[in-house]
Amino acid sequence: MSIAVESFLLNPTNTGTLQRQVQDLVTDGILGGRFRPGDRLPSSRKLATHLGISRITVTLAYTELVANDYLTSRGRSGYFVSDQAPAPVDTLPPPAGPSTVDWSRTLGGRIGTSLTISRPEAWRDYRYPFIYGQPDQRLFDHQSWRRCAMQALGRRDFDALTADAYEADDPELVAQIIRLILPRRGISARPDQVLITLGAQNALWTAAQVLLTQRRTAAMEYPCYPVLRDILTQSRCNTTELTVDNAGLRPETIPPETDVLFTTPSHHCPTSATLPLDRRRALLKRAQDDDFLIVEDDYEFELGFMTRPAPALKSLDTDGRVIYIGSFSKSLFPGLRLGYMVAAAPVIREARSLRGLVLRHPPGHIQRFAAYYLTHGYYDAQVQRTARAFRARREVLDESLARNGLEPAGRNGFGGSSVWMRTPDGVSADDLAARLRARSVLIEPGAAFFRPGDARGQNHYRLGYSSIDSTAIPTGTALIAEELARLQR
Amino acid sequence: MSIAVESFLLNPTNTGTLQRQVQDLVTDGILGGRFRPGDRLPSSRKLATHLGISRITVTLAYTELVANDYLTSRGRSGYFVSDQAPAPVDTLPPPAGPSTVDWSRTLGGRIGTSLTISRPEAWRDYRYPFIYGQPDQRLFDHQSWRRCAMQALGRRDFDALTADAYEADDPELVAQIIRLILPRRGISARPDQVLITLGAQNALWTAAQVLLTQRRTAAMEYPCYPVLRDILTQSRCNTTELTVDNAGLRPETIPPETDVLFTTPSHHCPTSATLPLDRRRALLKRAQDDDFLIVEDDYEFELGFMTRPAPALKSLDTDGRVIYIGSFSKSLFPGLRLGYMVAAAPVIREARSLRGLVLRHPPGHIQRFAAYYLTHGYYDAQVQRTARAFRARREVLDESLARNGLEPAGRNGFGGSSVWMRTPDGVSADDLAARLRARSVLIEPGAAFFRPGDARGQNHYRLGYSSIDSTAIPTGTALIAEELARLQR
Fold first, then answer.
1. Domains of chain A (ranges plus CATH)?
2. Per the database record, which ranges form the HTH gntR-type domain (chains A, B) (predicted)?
3. What is the ipTM of this complex?
4. Within 13 Å of residue A23, how many CA atoms lie on the same side as its CB?
5. What does the pLDDT look like over A218-267, one tens digit per residue?
6. Are the Cβ atoms of A363 and B361 closer than 8 angstroms?
7. Residues B198, B338: contact at Cβ < 8 Å?
8. Chain B residues with CB-CB distance to A6 below 8 A
9. Which single residue of A323, B8, B24, B31 could bond A343 by disulfide (Cβ 3.0 to 4.6 Å)?
10. Cβ separation B162–A231 shorter than 8 A
11. What phi, psi does B13 have (nearest 5°)?
12. What pLDDT digit, counting tens, does each position of A10-33 carry?
């Protein structure tokens, strides 16, 4: 390609002859990897005009660079980066002087993130990837998605895709969520009760920012989704952890000073327990009596294939106390970064102001793409296809676990995309995961879901089946059993 | 379309007969606008199985709904929402009980936003829209953008578009920014010194969050970009406002206790002053001597068509003190929500952790679309085409202003997409804007750029030329002069 003349800027602080400076601009570009073999340099006339220097200076610099093998001259076609030019150096030259900034003081490292679920980047190269939360290309209707994208990329939608919408969401997407998604959870909502977010995690973060301060108290389930713990830590509120049992959260354990409770009633993360109706009612009563709010993370609700779906907590809420969070990460794919929050209008107003400050609005493109995917019914088909495939995988997994004498930890009648497991006493899930990795099996050790130092973290692991083919599950499970047996010896 | 059976959920708290409840589910759907005339209901058998009730209950409910004109029966084809069904009501029924939540206490309205630039939503219906910051469909290469999107939507890029990338950016986009954009600003960077953001505003917000606390002091230019003031207010740091002159920020006015300075050296927002080289050097020296950091907002740098582009402040920074912010909002379009931050690796690491918590990563789609637009050279062509068009508009505007005796406030030798104007003494820019609006002319009153109550806010306005055609500029300008003359009488 041609190197744009605007790539060249003389640094006014530089010393040395102009010819030298021009040469340095070229060699810096080549060594920095910005100019590549075959790239064409601007003509000497053009570069001279641009830099406000004489043409002969540029010609002399180019000639010198040809002599040094950085450039080649192809007669009237001009100058090109030579195939013999030195290879780019990996690191840039260090700054001219030693930096005088004390970063540890200046930054303070205030954004702490705890242990996350470890997963090799090249997880696709493993034969038995029992991992969680990545899209499955085999199940995604790529063709229809592309068709919806093409429709949205037409001239008619130019404004929706490209305009600065300030604080507003795409009204098409909001309408589709209200019409097609929320009713399945028993939820009615008006447009001013819905906010589009950059995924469910962004909705959780927004809720925490809007509802919590250093003087307020949040209650969360324990064990729990590790990112939620980080979000609450960053908000600097007081936090209470409520240990769940086989049926999820126990409403009687919520301390009366709670301001906001975060919960996953459809199926608890990570144990998959579904909160029974009597507990849901008790929970809402507690919220009213003790005047706290509830953030309901309804992740993966589309995947409740083992039971008739229970209505969302939000659908039982007559008081506006529940802030409901949904996501397209599972029904479409996580790289889309789209989710939504449904709450009382004052909460949505405040959340929208915050979002307006942080990033204005979610990109117009992805909102309209998703709106069309919903409108045309592809979303429903996608959800059904995924739930069907996961049900089949789950059946194979349950059967394989039973055959190998491995028992899941706790009940799980919901479905979802993972099973929560306990290791035998004395066997560390980290050790197990490390050994299995060497045999091309990936499992997710449980420590990330617990407080650092909690022994139960070493005693649990998660088996995801959203990225593993049914046919790989029996052998993968057998390998887990084999390594477990070795570790117990 | 067919209404999915999953749309129906019996609310376990409801009383009344099952038949009544089924009828309510249907009427709620119709009155709430979710079920529309012509939509097909699930078969009675299917709905009965789904709800776990007898089929005859559903049939009786449907029959009753036909009698009430909500549904029509088309024999064996089933039941459909009737064309005679009542129209949806705009607001949903109020919640069953009065809400007991005291929102003013619970939320506290902590996310304050100040006055923003007012602009009617239907600005395209105005004949003389001197507005700022919206995309211009006439200049955008829609066809090539679509082509890049199609390429990215192919199977080869499935992972880049759909996978959960956690904290990572699209490496293709980062590489293109480093190779094609930063060198034009005289900036060299390694990938670990670049963070992709959801637009420049998101980069400013991130910088403020990472660098400021309640115990730190920010300095900002005055007047200034109103969103920056809101961002600093939300960070709760101390803030000093530094009044700019005709050449922008005066380095000698920066108080020694400053921790972070926010500046727009290429052309100050909103006055368009370009910071001269001696002040840039003085600024960097002050930063080193007094140990503060500089956030350089290089918005619209692509539009410096009136002068040879000055290298960015960041290009003179040997000490890692400058955090550089760029955006695709002007070179592509604002609805894309893409920008970038270039800074020392420790700053980028911290900013990335924060972003990971807030939203994980920018959507894969828009990152890869933009990467291809850069790779294929469309970006360069786009920038050149836009700068050419804006230069032509600016020439017409300057000439029209002169002919009508209107003088811009301060110097502006940069270019950009707007001119900063002063009203004659005693004439309020708000009044002027209101009168002009009635004559199909939109201007942007200056109050948003000043502190509330500062009289200078009433004395300034901005004329944007990014959305107005050259041919409309002379008449628009004449109308402004005409209304100004009336107001002075």
1. 5-81 (1.10.10.10), 123-138+381-488 (3.90.1150.10), 142-377 (3.40.640.10)
2. 16-84
3. 0.87
4. 18
5. 999 999 999 999 999 999 999 999 999 999 999 999 999 999 999 999 99
6. no
7. yes
8. 184, 309
9. A323
10. no
11. -90, -10
12. 877 677 789 888 988 898 888 778
